[in-house]
Amino acid sequence: MVKSIYRYIIGRKKFLIYTSLRLITTVIALLINIFIVRKLSVYGYGTYSLAIMLVGFATTFGFSWSSSSILYYGSKEKAEEDSINKTFWSRNILLIISLIFITLFFIVFNHKINEYVGQSVAFNILIWIYIQVIVDFLNQYYLTVQKQIIASIMYLISKTMFLLCIILLPFKSSIDMINLNIITDAIMIIFILKINKRDISAPIFDKKYFKEILSFSLWQLFGFTGLFLLNFGDNLVIKYFLDTKSIGVYNSVYKLFSALASMSYLITNFYGAYIIENIKKNDSIKLKNFFYKERFIICGIALFLHVVIICFCKEIIIVIYGYRYIESVVVLQVLLVGSVIQYFLVFYIPFCNATKGYIQLQALHIVQATINILLDIILIKHLGILGAAIATVTASGIEGIILIIIFERKVKELT
């Protein structure tokens, strides 16, 4: 038994190191959020949450929708031609076009954005977006060339610097927090020096390759819109029926939920290139081992950890945020059920992206967002922020059932 566990650990050493580094980074990010919540008033944190929501909007429609093309198409190109040159330059065309629109949006609606948030943050956010463009590419690049540990170290350094600054320096306003985010994210740009220049050499345009990446990315945009609308819709409806303070309370626990749920994406980030490679090679043995052994081991561990956290939600909220946020305990417990669902469903993402099932996957994200917003309108009015949590989990559960019906049969056929 001990030897089996030892062999399991050794055989997955790289994944465990990568996961551990990203877990440490996530814990640091949670600590950062704790300090921000404690330094700001509940209203101030609500304002900061609205600013972060706008950052999410800008990154989603500015560059995130096309960034995963680097991993999925870059991995194929790397395997075939030992570079990601065609992928890199094809994606750059999409990036330039979308950034032009985002920049114009922030310039034209500058005053409206500042009025909505309650602070002059529009141009700060725009600078942050451009920094995020570079950082996001670096992350996708290192995942593509299977140097995942470098990608994790990059974020670890940035978050550690943020934590040290927020502890040691007297930041007190939401603007201070946004500017600190910008500065510490900019530190990651130094990792551009580790890129293999041969991977992104002289500009090249392949019309057929560009069309494939455009099709893939547009469907990603379609799906990312749905994912973004989940929290955006919650905040929009909460602000309409309740107030900014309620947004602060809801987002304080939503941050905890999303931090834990987003850890599931480590699976797709780490194994994405591996799955693409084995689907291309038609290696059913490795694929079967991944989907019918690794998947259930990881899901079992995730379920156990979630149950433990759910049992101690009250103590966690009191220790982290204090009694001001005690009303959010039940909200967090409900949201964590949605996190459990996410850990199971995330295994379908690399499979769908590698087999052109991303069309159905992204369409389902829109369905999920639509259900979430409709339930928000019905439930928040009567249940307050708890209604938003119930809406989120219900929508995730419905998407999960449909995903299982559509794709589990296809996974079995491939394995």
Notable traits:
globular; 415 residues
Proportion of beta-strand residues:
under 5%
What's the structural domain tally? 1
Number of helices: 17
User: How confident overall, as mean pLDDT?
Assistant: 83
Unreliable sequence segments: none
Gyration radius, rounded: 21 Å
Structural category is mainly alpha
Concise summary:
This protein has about 425 residues and is mainly α. The protein has 17 helices and no strands.
Walk me through this protein's architecture.
This protein is mainly α and 415 residues long. It has one domain (2-414). The protein is built from 17 helices and no strands. Helix 3 packs parallel to helix 8 (174-186), helix 7 (148-168) packs antiparallel against helix 8 and helix 12 (284-311) runs antiparallel to helix 14. The longest helix is centred in the first third of the chain and has 40 residues, at 42-81. It is globular, with a radius of gyration of 21 Å. It starts with a helix and ends with a helix. The mean pLDDT is 83.
Task: Provide the fold topology.
Elements: H1 2-11, H2 13-39, H3 42-81, H4 85-108, H5 110-117, H6 122-144, H7 148-168, H8 174-186, H9 207-241, H10 244-262, H11 265-281, H12 284-311, H13 313-321, H14 329-345, H15 348-354, H16 358-383, H17 385-414
